Amino acid sequence: MSNRGTVLRHDPSLQPEWAGMEDNAQVENPERFVQQLSEEDVALSLKERGYALIQLSETVMETYDNFSRSLDAFFNQSLEEKSKFATKMMGPSNQQFTPNQYHGYSRLEGLKEQFMIRGCGKGSQLMFPGSYRYKEENSPHFGREGLTLFEQLDQVCRETLHAVCKDNSLPNKNADALVDILPHNQTTAGKVPSKSQIDCKQIAEGVLVCGSSYFHPGFVSSSLLDVFHYSNTFNVHDDSHVKFKNNHSSHTAATRGLKLPPVYHRQSL
Length: 269
Hints:
By secondary structure, the chain is an alpha+beta fold. The chain has helices at residues 30-39, 42-48, 58-75, 79-82, 142-167, 172-176, 240-250; strands at residues 8-9, 87-88, 104-108, 112-120, 127-128, 133-134, 137-138, 198-204, 207-212, 220-230, 267-268. β6 and β7 (137-138) form a beta hairpin.
């Protein structure tokens, strides 16, 4: 079950020259469009559209709020501190721009910073920040809150896929074959498991490796949780604002053909 690889370094500013340049599709009456999505049955939306708008539980939103505070603290650290997490996983790659394929910190000057999170079992070598002193208090633990949110959202996705299978008279195993492999006790009836055990060990100053009992030991997920911190481009008189809209909206919808209108918020999950 191990999908473990070697930790390699990359320049955190390396991004493709076309990043943020893809035109954003225009949606007529975007407010009505979002309202329509929110009223649709999620399984039906996925079947007919290929994407859906899902309302999250209070439990997941509480985890989101905690993780959002840890993100605020992390992205307000120095570039030197953040660059400790500019890593790539799964071994050598022949592709130049790896931040969008692996795990860790990267940035695109004038547009955004991001931290790509992979789910991982105990014994993996994925590196995470911990807690920072920020705004006169200690922030929530980045690694633990990030993995907890990852796992909760993973369960939302699995339950949604199971609903699609049910509507189409298909067994759940058809959906389970599409997502990351989990220990048997985490997938029973597609229900949210009891809180997993997340262990973190410091390997350098401010740097930890974390792993969760939610996954098999040493496992690194193919799924990812991509978090962003966008630059304030509203008062910049160049094409930065266009890049922001194109890039943000393309990360807000799970479809290539039609993209939801961007929500103007400096942090996006």
